[in-house]
Amino acid sequence: MKRLALLAITMLVSIYNFAQNNPHGRIKVTADGHYLQHQDGTPFFWLGDTGWELFHRLTLPEIKSYLDNRASKGFTVIQAVALAEFDGVHKPNRYGELPLINDDPTQPNDSYFKLIDSAVMLAAERDLFIGLLPTWGDKVTKMWGEGPVVFDSINAYAYGKWIGNRYKNNTNIIWILGGDRPAVRDSMDWRPVWRQMARGIIEATNHQCLITYHPSGGDFSTSQFIHNEPWLDVNMFQSGHGNGHDTHCWELVTRDRRYSPTKPTLDAEPNYEDHPVDPWPKWNVDNGYFRAYDVRKQTYRSVFAGACGVTYGHHSVWQFVNERDEIINFADRGWRNAINRPGAFQVGFLRKLIESRPMLNRIPDSTIIVGDKGLKGEHMEAFRGGDNSYAMIYLPAGKRFSINTTFMTAKEVVAWWFNPKDGSTQKINTLKRTNNISFTPPIQGVENDWVLVIDDASKKYKEPGR
């Protein structure tokens, strides 16, 4: 009882503090359909972290510590699950509470959700949005995992309406259905269940909600199966951990951007930092782990291809590895150690870089790159501003290359090298605009990735990433 009273007091304090925060309002899709912004028009860059087991495995003080860490690194969205993956229906949270009474989605346990209430408020105080999954997908689509399947079209609507009503006044909620499961597979179609859950959320919030869907990994996204569902606001895919290095996330973004009606898209689960490479059905230890360089390559290339943001993940953080719970898939460290791994800092540099130039009119355009764009680990991606006043090119491996700047109207351009490892910059001399300018990065070779930033000299843009 004391613990629950503490949660209630914390929530009341957080509600007061919340009223002083979140000045820009909820998130919505931009008019062109490609990006995200706040209600007041302020641009919003989705920089997510997969904290899937946040509500299930952490105490409130631990949640606060984790949110402090993520806010300090520049994250904007925390993706977390109400009915968690690993026996989340039958294994209680750290306060001994189960989410449902008798496994019944129409009987949610109020005491369990009080912890989520407090976490949502703590996130708001730190300008963080919660990408809230009402349930992990195995509660709808077993296929693998713990389950049990507890949802059908009837109780999915009731649960959606209940949880939507509970958080209808929390303007820092982004709704994520799915949970690592397809909406359709062969002859099986679970769209009616998700459709009803979405309907419940929409009705409860009076349409004041942004909804996306987290599918399983592979060479597809939500766009192939539920793009035309009216409740789906944002497409999503996960380039994942099971297909080796350098999966073509940039091509998935390009494909999603071609669908009509236009909807934003993002990679909500690229390779996790410190995740074993391709561990299924059995891990070959010689494959090693994905490290920070792998994270940078995937996050930069999907964003430069036109995504509305990207999600980072760490293999020990999503499961919050601790001394109590079974370690999943060869995680190599505890979560408190993992939250300060290099990739977690470096994705914050990506956000700062994108926000240092007008970001809502970005146009993917690799024709800026002269000649070969490279394959797999050396594939380059580029974009330009809608007014042609700037461009950025990402090089996964430092090597000499050429660009065409004739898309600009300026007679002179300013060039910068931006280092994704540490966010530092080096200014290059002002150059004449031409159709073929060659550049050699300061350090060449594999694992020396760079961003070349080209600005219209007359705009006098600030230093990239500042």
UniProtKB/TrEMBL annotation:
<feature type="domain" description="Apiosidase-like catalytic">
    <location>
        <begin position="32"/>
        <end position="360"/>
    </location>
</feature>
<feature type="domain" description="Putative collagen-binding">
    <location>
        <begin position="363"/>
        <end position="455"/>
    </location>
</feature>
<keyword id="KW-0732">Signal</keyword>
<dbReference type="InterPro" id="IPR025277">
    <property type="entry name" value="Apiosidase-like_cat_dom"/>
</dbReference>
<dbReference type="Pfam" id="PF12904">
    <property type="entry name" value="Collagen_bind_2"/>
</dbReference>
<keyword id="KW-0378">Hydrolase</keyword>
<protein>
    <submittedName>
        <fullName>Glycoside hydrolase family 140 protein</fullName>
    </submittedName>
</protein>
<dbReference type="Pfam" id="PF13204">
    <property type="entry name" value="Apiosidase"/>
</dbReference>
<dbReference type="InterPro" id="IPR024749">
    <property type="entry name" value="Collagen-bd_put"/>
</dbReference>
<feature type="signal peptide">
    <location>
        <begin position="1"/>
        <end position="19"/>
    </location>
</feature>
<dbReference type="GO" id="GO:0016787">
    <property type="term" value="F:hydrolase activity"/>
</dbReference>
